[in-house]
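Suppose you are handed only these lines of text.
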Amino acid sequence: MDWNTLQESCLACKRCTLSETRTNVVFGVGRQDAEVLFVGEGPGQQEDLQGEPFVGRAGKLLDDMMAIIDLDRTNSFIANIVKCRPPGNRDPLPAEQEACTPWLDQQLAIIQPKIIVCLGRIAAMYMIGSDFKITRDHGQWFDRDGVRMMALFHPAALLRDPRKRPETFEDLKSLQREIREICTNTY
Ligand code: URA
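From them, the structure of the protein bound to uracil can be written out as follows.
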């Protein structure tokens, strides 16, 4: 499937009941040939209204975190584990994740990123492993099918607990080193 067909089908998705309460499907933002791809958990209220990931308060912080290492929405890609807002911002249910992640898998197959950065526990458990512990394993590197993967604390967690920020700064520096080592595109 090509990108436009994938996007069209995804925007019409009714594979789970989140489709009944969503305003917009949040397909993702960025380059289709991105070398670095971020995966969050799922849209919140602002994302649901605007149809773009990470545009609320946590999104502003994500933009700032990315800017520290010269990344932005035009030289990377940002997606989520589920593409429709879970009501009240609850965690997406396992059945909702199972219904939705084939969309993410197809995006990954087209983009073929070199580095995947998981934002928070939910994304890391899907991408890296179901035994992932964010407090223990953030900032560590994993290889999955030839792709380098790591997780950062979710920006919303950093807003709730600013004491986690110094560790995240170290993780971002490690991400920057990895990008310098294996990424080639200058876009
Ligand atoms: N939190 C997420 O995990 N994803 C978004 O798109 C916004 C907030």
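What can we learn from it? Residues 40-44, 47, 53-54, 58-59, 80, 119 surround uracil (CB under 6 Å). The CA atoms of residues 166 and 172 lie 10 Å apart.
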